[in-house]
Structure formats: structure tokens, C-alpha cells
Amino acid sequence: MPAKDPTTVVSALALGTSAQPAAINPQIVGGPMGQAGSKEALERLNASMSELRAIAAKPMLDQALQALTADRHQEGAEWAIKALEKDETSGFGWYLLAIARERVGDFTSAISAYETALRLLPDHAEVANDLGRLAYRLDMKPQAEKLFRHFLARFPGHHEGANNLACVLRDRLAYDEAVGLLRPVIVENPGVPMLWNTMATILAEQGDYATAEIFFREALRLDETFAKARYNLANARLSQGDGEDALVLCEEALTRPMTDDERQMMELSRSTMLLALGRLGEGWDAYEARLHPAHPDVTHFMVDVTRWTPGADLAGKSLLVIGEQGLGDEVLFGHLLPDIIDALGPDGHLTLAVEPRLVDLFQRSFPQATVGAHATYLKAGRTYRTLPFVMDFSAFDLWTPLASLLRQFRRTTSAFPDRVGFLTPDPDRVAHWRRELEKAPAGVKVGLLWKSNIKNGARYRFYSPFADWAPVLQAKGVTLVNLQYGDCSEEIAQAERDFGVSIWTPPGIDLKQDLDDVTALCAAMDLVVGFSNATMNLAAGGGAPTWLISVPGAWTRLGTSRYPWYPQVRTFTTPAFGNWTPVMDAVGEAVTAFVAER
């Protein structure tokens, strides 16, 4: 293979890095336009290839192009390889091979072929656009941005290139630049529905769902069959508190033709809409879409054991349960485990695989179980979860991902037990932190959680700006304690500068890594207040008094005004995304009342 140009994607990034699956939430969809191997793309490629004349590889290239046009992608790859056997420097041969391999899902080979084609066809900027789309799909956003900019430099103002670059800019929170890029392109191309959809996603990522809805509806006016726009409109309606309308729109979108990965992503969002409406049985059944092989974020569990299904008798069985999704979700779904242990009975045994930082905490909480750490890897854009501590899978009768157990054990809200705490913090560390808190400034000890360290717009819209915490920060008789993991120096300085209050940081603890100790610290607090993140789940799971600040349409409230997972959690819900003042005022007043009671 020819040497790679330094501007190309580094394939190693797609081949082997560790990964942590993200928590599952409804996703707004606004990705790159165009598709490798589409009818239009192949027509343009054919026009470019028509300039080729008497070269030995030309007949093979023509055969490859004909096969791809007829959606015979494996055959297309075979003809492209034959062309490359005649002339390994044929840029068109590498390009056709790249298209074919991408279309059959072999992203590793596709990236390598695209890279070579781009080097050999430097003036054929569409190769950069195709490679950029694939890099985007594999979550290689910096590389995708570089490739899209390369394409736009060759074709300034091209609506497809502008749309694709705007998606990358949106994903790295460069909202103003994304809007500035798209606005003139929409003016020049007002009849392109995808441009309206992408502009709407930029607004939605910032929490402006009402305005985003206008743009989604314009995309649908231009093309009523536009499934992505209808699905996005569904999520916008859900985020404005209209779950019924959201479900109807999502189900309408699912009647349209789409790729398998898009369908499973929408099916998963449909499940969360059902859950948000309190239709738990249907919702958990539909939630299995997260495990479908075609789902874009599916985790492949490397397990050779019979899969548990609802209704299977667990009594006396050896059951392997594997935690899944984000760290907070592993804790959230962990509240099922006492029920599972009861179902296994005295002759059964639970083996539990969790995130490494949770092993000690879960082993103490469930001493009758065997608890070990899973390991997760990313290879060629796919996530794989393994169990290094398991030597012999034949020891298990059944296995299941943790959340799948909800299908049997939590089909109604009444099935959620009135049980405060299912995790057991280390009692010695709880006593230690109570002593340390006595050394802090006098006042009721209130721990604060104000952000997520997952830095993307889809997460940021669920958290208020720190300045909106003023009613809580200024409550009298309170000692504010920092429970927030990650770099908090900016917010702590802002609290001191703008509000004249100090946020006390506990000494000698890594709030991100020492999760067993974090749970003990939370248990020593008088109150924990904040948004949903991993620490909030640890606090509530450990039985600490916890107040949750929630948003409209949050599916984890399961159609209620409370938080059924943790009966002691008090929930405060903002009336609309971005309208944080009412809810933060209410939390501030409640904190003042909480202090007065003590």
C-alpha cells in the first residue's frame, strides 16, 4: 500500500483503544449528509472515471462500479481488488474498494482504502468527504473535521460539506461557528431539508427545543418522509414534556425506510418515551434495542453462556450479571440486585461484573455474591466487554446484562421496593468523614453536584450554568461541600468571587476514582443536592438524603413526579430546558427550610 499522506486519518485510532460505553438517553440525530455508494455518489464517480481510457484496470473498475450501483457490495469489492492487482496505484480502485467495504460494515478496511484513495486522488475532494463521514461515524471527530474542511476548501459553500462540518462543530460545542456556517448555506439552498434539520439539532443541543421544533417542522414540510426530522421532532416534544405526542411522532418515523442502525437507535429512543409515560413493561421490552447488533452504540459481551430470558426460573441457578452503559447506570440498575439474590435463593449464586472502581463497594454490599471487574475495549468502531476475572464460563447456568432484568422485576412502578439504600458504605470511612466534616466550617453539611464531566452538548443541556446556583449557594447556615469530580477550580473561584461563599473540598480523596470512599463521604453528609451523575447515584444508592434536580421528559422518573429508584430522593423539576430560575429558587428555599429544621 502506498505511504499515507500526513493529512489522513490515523487508522490505529479505530483499531484498538479502551472505551467506556455511554449512558443511554434519547439522541437528537443530525449527522453528515451523503452516503458512500449512493446513486448520486456513484454517478459522480462514473463521470470522473469516464476520462480513463486505455488502462489495464479500466474493465475491472467498470465492473466494480456496476456491482456497487446494483447494491452488490461484496462483488464490487472483488472487482475493485482485481483492478488493484492490475494497478495498485489506481486511486479509483482504492476508492471503489473503500465504498464497498464501508457498505458491508468493514470499517477498518474501508478507512485504510479511503486513506490511500485520498493520497492518490488529491483533487477528488469527495474522497475526503466520504472518509470524513466514516471518521464521524467512528467517533473520530477531530479527523472528520479536518477532512470536511479539506472538502470545503475545494468546494466553498457546498451544502453537503457545510452540513457535515457543522455537525462536527456542534458536537464540540462550537455552536456559534456552526450556526454561522449553516445560515448562509440555508439561504442559498432553502429547499434542502437536512440543512434545516441540522440547524435544529444545534438549537436542541443548547436546550432551545421550542425554536428547534420550528426548524424540524420546516424540514418535514419540505420532505414529509424525512424520518430523522420526524424522530428529532419527537424528542423535542418529549423534552418539552409532551410524551404522548413524542411517542406518536417516533412511531411514525419508524414506518419510514432507514438503515438498520438508525432503526435500532430510534427503537431505543421509543423505549425511553414509553418509560417516560409510565408504560414500564412495554418500555423495558423495547429497551432491548440497545443490545441489537445493528445499534450504533451496541456493546458486544464476550460471554459463552446461555442468555437469561424473562420467566426463566432462577432458583438454585448460577447467574452471571454484567453491568452495562455508563457508570451511573450501573449503580442505578444495581438496585435490582437484592431482588435477584432473593430469586436465586440459598442454593443459587450471583456473579457480578462491574466497573473496576465499583468492585469493593458492590462486594461489601453483596457479600454472598462474587464481584469482579469487567474490561471494555473499542476496536474498529465497535465496543467489546470482557471479564478478565472469569476463567471458566461453564460454571454458569445463565448470564444477562444488568438492565435486562428490569423486564421481569420492574414492570410497574409498584414493583419498586420502598427500600432506602442498597449499597453498604464502609462504616469506618463514614466515621472518618464525619470527623473530617466536623473540622469544616460550622453549618449543615450540604454536598453539591452541579455538572457532568461528559463534555458534549447532549449532556450539557441537562445542567444549569453554575451562576444559577446562587439561591443555594447563598442559603444561610450551610457548609457547602464539593462532591463534584473533575476540575472544579473555576466554579469554586466563581462562588467566592460572585457570591462571597466558600465551597469546602474534602481533603485526601479523589472524587472521580475513589468511588467506595465517595459513597462513604456522601453517607456522612446531612444532604446531597444536584443533577443526575454517577456521584448522585452513589449517594442515593448508599441511602444518603438526596435531592435531584431534573428536567422535563426525563425517562428515569418513569412517568412520575418522583424518582422510584431511590424512595428517599426528593425531586425538583424545571418547567423547561434553559429556564432554571424557578427550580433553583425552589431548591434554595428548600435548603433554607432544611437548615431551619435542624
> Strand count, sense and closure of the main sheet?
6 strands, parallel
The CATH architecture designation of the largest domain is 3-Layer(aba) Sandwich
The total number of structural domains is: 4
Sheet with the most strands: spatial strand order: 11-10-9-12-13-14
Number of beta strands: 14
Radius of gyration: 26 Å
Q: What is the CATH superfamily of the largest domain?
A: Glycogen Phosphorylase B
Q: In CATH terms, what is the fold-level topology of the largest domain?
A: Rossmann fold
Note down, in words, how this protein is organized.
The protein folds into four domains: 35-124, Serine Threonine Protein Phosphatase 5, Tetratricopeptide repeat, CATH 1.25.40; 193-297, Alpha Horseshoe (Serine Threonine Protein Phosphatase 5, Tetratricopeptide repeat); 299-411, no CATH class; 427-597, Glycogen Phosphorylase B (Rossmann fold, 3-Layer(aba) Sandwich), CATH 3.40.50.2000. Helix content is 48%, strand content 10%. A six-stranded parallel beta sheet has the order 11-10-9-12-13-14, with helices on both faces. Strands 1-6-7-2 form a four-stranded mixed beta sheet. It has a four-stranded parallel beta sheet with strand order 5-4-3-8, with helices on one face. A hairpin with a 2-residue loop joins strand 6 and strand 7 (382-386). The protein is globular, with a radius of gyration of 26 Å. The relative contact order is 0.08.
